[in-house]
Structure formats: structure tokens, C-alpha cells
């Protein structure tokens, strides 16, 4: 179970009680957050980030990543506060402060800010509103958003480029992109944006390249990868279904049997029999 309390439209308090949670995310806006308790592991195609209690970090917008959340050593549930720095607020700030157009940001998508006492104080100032969310007005949220921007700009010069690069994803090689990112369980509209296309042009281009619909291709691609991981890498089905982009095990098992003629569990049994026959 996970409780999400929206203090305002761009500020979120989250508390998860499950022992282990695996989720996938696509943030259209920059996300600045602090881990109040527990641990989170963030996996991108290039890097892995581990956030523990007290960690502060910022994730750049338009990033795909998988997140594994688990209780900390003290057993406390995963709790965090996040503030999303939306493009509208950043564009208004840039105009008011004469910040020039920035070049495309190409550095790390996630920056560790642990130990920044000013940002720690910023998040501490939000804690009283968790129990009194009605007191956190829209005006306060606007002020806090600007405060977060100011603090980041004071932290490092890199944040001017990080925050004020307003360029949207450009049209890219769709075939290569989908073969690289099919494991992420996000809406087609998000895939389309990240590939630099409208949803309609994404579907049209996809069908031309793969000669099938995105929905059918994604399911088959994920199931084929699952089959490989179970039969060749000897992973358990419970380890595989989230890894390849399925949300629940029963749907995964049903779709797997429909494509391959046996369930993931039956595939393991078959693999064990084959191994025994080879040995004997």
C-alpha cells in the first residue's frame, strides 16, 4: 500500500508500506526530492542511483527510469517529499530574471544534493503541512517553487543549463529507441513524446517500421525477453515480470502461456527435466 498526499499540484508527499515496491516512471517535469526514510534505487539506461534516508536529489525531466523502493535498515517505510519544477514556473522565472536561452543539457540526468543544508532546511519547512495540508495554499506553493529554484541556482552554475533548457525531445530513430526502451511500462503517449512525435504520428511511424501495432509489439517483445531470462538466464518468473514491463504476475503468466503454450512455471519445470536428461 502506498499513500500519496498532494500538498499542492506540484508538491507530493509519499509513504509506502509494502516491503518491496518496483515501479517505472516518466516525469515530464524536473523532480526535486528528499528521502525521509527507507531506501530507493533508481535505474536508468546509463546509471544506477541509490538514495537512503536523508538523501536529496533532483531528476531531470523527460527521463525514463525504474525505481525499487524498500524499507531502510531500521524498518521504517519509504517516505519522501517531492517538488516538481514545471516548465511554466521556470519560464516565468527566466523571463523575470533575464535568463538567456540555454543550450541543450547533456550531462547526468540525476544530481545528488545530499549535505546541502539549505535544501534540507527547505524540505524541513514543508513537514508541518503534511499533517495540515489545507494550510498549504496555492500562493505558498508558488513561493516554495521559486525558493527551490533560487536554492538550486545558488548551489551550482550547472543548474542554469539544467533548469532552463526548454527544448523538447526531437524526432529520433524510432526503431532503435523502442528496441532500447521497450521494458519501460509507460503510456504510449509518453513514448511518443520522448520519440519527438505526436501520438498519431508515433503510431503511424511505428506501424510502418514494425508492421504491427505498438501494443502487440510491446507485449510480444516483453514476453520474448521474459522467455529468454527464464530459460537461458535461469531467473524466476517472479523476478522477471516486473523487469520486462508487466504490472501484475497473473496477466504476465496468462499472456506468456498464450504465446508459448506453457506458463512461466511450466517452462521452469521443462528446463529442469531437460537438464536432468542431459546429466543422466
TrEMBL record:
This is AraC family transcriptional regulator. It comes from the Bacteria. The keyword Transmembrane does not apply. SMART domains: HTH_ARAC (SM00342). It comes from Dyadobacter psychrotolerans. InterPro entries: ExsA-like_N (IPR054015), Homeodomain-like_sf (IPR009057), HTH-like (IPR037923), HTH_AraC (IPR018060). Residues 172-270 form the HTH araC/xylS-type domain. PANTHER family: ARAC-FAMILY TRANSCRIPTIONAL REGULATOR, HTH-TYPE TRANSCRIPTIONAL REGULATOR EXSA. One of its GO terms (molecular function) is sequence-specific DNA binding. Keywords: DNA-binding, Transcription, Transcription regulation.
Amino acid at each position: 500500500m502506498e499513500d500519496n498526499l498532494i500538498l499542492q499540484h506540484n508538491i507530493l508527499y509519499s509513504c509506502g508500506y509494502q516491503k518491496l515496491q518496483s515501479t517505472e516512471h516518466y516525469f515530464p517535469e524536473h523532480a526535486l526530492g528528499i528521502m525521509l526514510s527507507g531506501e530507493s534505487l533508481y535505474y536508468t539506461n546509463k546509471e544506477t542511483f541509490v538514495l537512503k534516508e536523508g538523501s536529496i536529489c533532483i531528476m531531470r525531466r523527460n527521463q525514463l527510469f525504474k525505481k525499487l523502493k524498500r524499507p531502510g535498515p531500521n524498518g521504517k517505510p519509504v517516505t519522501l517529499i517531492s517538488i516538481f519544477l514545471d516548465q511554466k514556473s521556470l519560464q516565468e522565472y527566466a523571463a523575470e530574471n533575464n535568463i538567456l536561452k540555454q543550450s541543450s543539457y547533456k550531462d547526468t540526468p540525476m544530481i545528488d544534493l545530499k549535505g546541502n543544508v539549505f535544501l534540507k532546511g527547505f524540505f524541513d519547512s514543508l513537514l508541518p503541512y503534511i499533517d495540515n495540508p489545507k494550510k498549504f495554499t496555492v500562493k505558498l506553493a508558488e513561493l516554495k517553487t521559486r525558493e527551490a529554484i533560487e536554492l538550486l541556482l545558488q548551489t551550482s552554475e550547472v543548474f542554469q543549463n539544467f533548469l532552463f533548457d526548454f527544448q523538447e525531445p526531437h524526432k529520433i530513430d524510432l526503431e532503435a529507441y523502442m528496441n532500447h526502451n521497450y521494458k519501460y511500462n509507460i503510456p504510449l503517449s509518453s513514448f511518443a513524446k520522448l520519440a519527438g512525435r505526436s501520438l498519431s504520428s508515433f503510431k503511424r511511424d511505428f506501424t510502418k517500421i514494425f508492421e504491427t501495432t505498438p501494443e502487440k509489439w510491446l507485449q510480444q517483445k516483453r514476453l520474448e525477453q521474459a522467455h529468454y531470462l527464464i530459460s537461458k538466464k535461469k531467473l524466476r518468473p517472479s523476478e522477471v515480470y516486473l523487469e520486462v514491463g508487466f504490472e501484475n504476475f497473473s496477466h504476465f503468466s496468462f499472456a506468456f502461456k498464450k504465446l508459448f503454450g506453457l506458463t512461466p512455471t511450466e517452462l521452469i519445470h521443462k528446463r529442469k527435466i531437460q537438464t536432468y536428461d542431459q546429466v543422466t
